[in-house]
Amino acid sequence: MRVVLVEPALAEAQSVAGLLKARHHDVTVFADGQAALAYLKNHSDIGALITSDEPLSMSGIELCWEARLVATTQRPIYVMMMSAADDDGKLSEALDSGADDVLRKPAVAEELYARLRAAERFASMQRELVRLATTDSLTGMYNRRAFFENAAELCSRAQSGYALSAIMIDIDHFKKINDAHGHDVGDDAICAVAREAMLERAIIGRLGGEEFAMLLDRALPEALALAERLRLQMEAIQIGVEGAPVKLTCSFGVSQWETGHTVDRLLKRADMALYEAKLNGRNRVMAAGDPPLTYSEAGRVVRSGRRTA
User: Fold this and answer.
1) Is residue 24 left, alpha or beta, with left meaning phi > 0 and alpha meaning psi from -120 to 50?
2) For residue 8, is the peptide bond before it cis, meaning its omega torsion is within 30 degrees of 0?
């Protein structure tokens, strides 16, 4: 585990750092609380902060509080405060201010190690809770909630002028697959489509049932080409069942970010293009526009320099 140790007393800092290194923890030592906090903010792989009650430039209580503000559900930090004082009120204040644990100085090796094992258990449990809360249990991709949470950064970049496109994907005649072969085969079909989509560099989520969404930092022509490549890959999928293998196809709707868009508007336009793909025979890529265009039509328009979406 990567640990930040904040202790102004040189002898104590060397003693605790030596104990940590003996158990193969990666330790960075500071005497100054502000410097330690800045380091913590810039290094997202720090798993634990161990601070004296009185580091330089700020109190240990303040550092506990500030470290708690840095920590997020995606970035757990186990905060421990060390104190030589027999002041239960101060230790209680540390816990109320964001410390997960307290440790009396001078540090005792086995007690320190036991508390760090607790820190590792805490981090492991938090990572698992985050995984369960953000991952679609069937496919392993983002669930709907996590997809929209991760979309925020790309949308912010798009507002600053960077390219952003959305692709909506839906398995054609999925109900027929379920009705004819059972839900297990339907689940296999969903997973097969998800595996192909997850090979791409994009934010990908299962929004529900057999519908998927992708956000990628590419302009419309590249997004259309990717969607067409995926369409061909989906068309080649074969689900092993008794007798003849089950084949499937997917329909795709693609849209491009425009000024004033939100992620909901971007996806809505891609969904409308997907609907047009369904109406026009399925197993095809449609680009959002007025009117929506097929992949080949959109390609010709893009090459001629006219705007499609």
Assistant:
1) left
2) no
**What whole-number distance in Å separates Cα of residue 289 and Cα of residue 126?**
44
Residues whose CB falls within 8 Å of the CB of residue 8, separated by 6 or more in sequence, listed in order: 31, 32, 52, 54, 55, 56
| Per-residue pLDDT reduced to its tens digit, 63-119 | 988 998 888 777 788 999 888 766 667 778 888 888 888 888 888 888 889 988 988
- The Cα–Cα gap between 96 and 215 comes to 41
What is the side-by-side order of every strand in the sheet holding 48-52? 26-30, 2-6, 48-52, 78-83, 101-104
Of 7, 54, 66, 210, catalytic = 210
Residue 30's contacts (CB-CB under 8 Å, 6 or more residues apart) are 4, 5, 6, 7, 36, 39, 55
- CATH 3.40.50.2300 maps onto the chain at 2-134
Q: Is the pTM of this model over 0.90?
A: no
pLDDT tens for each residue of 76-88: 889 998 887 666 6
Low-confidence stretches of the chain (pLDDT beneath 70): 85-88, 296-309
Return the bridge partners of 27, or none: 3
* CA–CA separation, 265 and 166 (whole Å): 10
| SS3 category, 20 | helix
Q: Is 210 a catalytic residue?
A: yes
CATH 3.30.70.270 location in the chain = 144-304
CA 74/CA 307 separation, integer angstroms: 39
Contact 198, 302 (CB under 8 A): no
pLDDT at 274: 96
* CATH superfamily of the 2-134 domain: Response regulator (3.40.50.2300)
Alpha helix ranges (H) inside 199-250: 220-235
Identify the CATH number of the domain defined by range 144-304: 3.30.70.270
